[in-house]
Design goal:
Length: 681
Amino acid sequence: MLRYDPAMTQENPLIVFTPSGKRGRFARGTTVLSAARALGVDIDSVCGGRAICGRCQVIHAVGNFAKHGITSEAGHASGRSEVEHRYDKLRGLAPERRLSCQMKIEGDLVIDVPAESQVHRQVVRKSAEVRAIAMDPATRLHFITVEEPDMHKPSSDLERVLAALEAQWNITGATADLAVIAEVQKTLRKGNWQVTCAVNTRNGGGPRITAIWPGFHDRLTGLAIDVGSTTIAAHLTSLVDGAVLASAGMMNPQIRFGEDLMSRVSYVMMHPGGDREMTAAVREALNRLAAEVAKEADVPATDIVEVTLVGNPVMHHLFLGLDPTELGGAPFALATGLAQTLPARALDLKLAPGALAYVLPCIAGHVGADTAGVVLSEAPQDSDELMLVVDVGTNAEIVLGNRQRLLACSSPTGPAFEGAQISSGQRAAPGAIERVRINAHTLDPRYKVIGSDLWSDEPGFEEAVAATGVTGICGSGIIEVVAEMFLSGIINQDGLVDGAMAARNPRVEADGRTFRYVVREGAPRITVTQNDIRAIQLAKAALYAGVRLLMDRLGVDQVDRIRLAGAFGSHIDVKYAMVLGLIPDCALAHVRSAGNAAGTGARIALLNAAARDEIERVVRKIEKIETAVEPKFQQHFVEAMAIPHKTAVFAELAKVVTLPAPRSITPPDDGGGERRRRRRG
């Protein structure tokens, strides 16, 4: 391989690469790609300079470049070769473009490397705050020509593959698993001694061949997976340009063993071998998702060379095949929280023969690898402002801090936010009410359901929802209806339904010894009961109390920015979340959904190997707070039961919403009052 020698004389032509600014002198006849490699310039190439892949395209700049130290007119290079003309006919080559592997230096040159030809090009995830992912995958493709076997040079086929990787790509000390070695001989002969190898260089054990294809192969894919307790999401992603080729999700089949995490841990405790049952179930689900996204993208699942996974601590342990029993009680000890790189087949994943799996690190016993993914995605560790990141689910995971300090905890919110434990509640699905508005004067509601863009009082609504019907109310809907009931005066700050409102609208009706609010008549009849409101208060108070503990530890009363992550967090209207007191006061413009940030973090780790080092470093610095042993948790919890809060001032919220004044409501007499009066008499 060409090495750059700074001692080269002034007689050798000078080549300058933009935008990097790297430069050097090379002998005439040197290819531009060889010069780029010698200087460490970022130019992509899979085929090793054979003009097959077309990824090494550059722009030949012509003109006066005195600012680069070139005093004469630059532009001295060989003309297009026959190989370039052939490539142009087959695949197209813009007039200003050249293949750097064919272009030769004949004099001083300025070469521009366009973004699409750079290995570490930026892939932008479009969102309210643009987040860039630098392409630096752990696995890359390398096209090689392998020496044929010779009776006079006894060596194995694998040895000659490794020798070709070293000679043609400067990859030394590569290894391969037995599953890959089994493919080598037939692949070499099928490719007529030309093959493409996928080589992972960031697995902790030196370069490793994870897959091998006959001839030239330019498609490389990986899988980013978020294993949630309720749903599993998978994203098939190109390791060449970062594009998401296909996505799919499914219910976690472990739900049949228990709705929430602790019920699944209890199942393991009560059923010997229960952990193995759940491990088998989740691994089967991962394989089904992998096959589904591969089929959608028209990619064989056996071509997927790498997978990254995130999940909460219980999911993390179960998909790794670890017993989660210790996570069921204090001190909530993890078997391991360290990042793991292991063969995908060790997780029973049916991918490329030598595919590797990277599992992000856990933060603490109840703050898992999914939260590490959220941190990697939202990057509070890079923020000068104080950022609060909350992954809202059955167990809310909370991170607070900035570049100086990060703290994390979890808070047991329960399944109410997902529609469970709510009388008319259901999971988010077509037909579920997801948006609610209540007229403060008439107390009549209007609502939207998943699957329709129409409000319930708009013409054509019933026809639009005829296929699904209106089936219940999901988490975002219950948040909004309780907040709207508060804003319209149906409930007070303590969450009590005001029975006196029945005189204004019969939708407020008696429900035994309490009252409820009717959102929709019909079948099913959808109502919000006093018990429903209590379940939401308990959930939101637990979350707020966890946040408040972290704020206490940092000594602050205000946060600058809030990110709501997770499937539920993605669909919450942030204004209603704050009205309810789910999150602390903050300028609403600085509160937004982070989407499936855990899944995005998994994708970042898939596309950028350096991001793995970063998250492992950040996780080691995060301070873990255990809410179960914090003496002030109960006080914060009780105060947070009020809507939005008993004592906290929501000054920013008050700028955009008129909050009702505190008022007392006499609870319905359960009969005990009359008995007490008789005893006193």
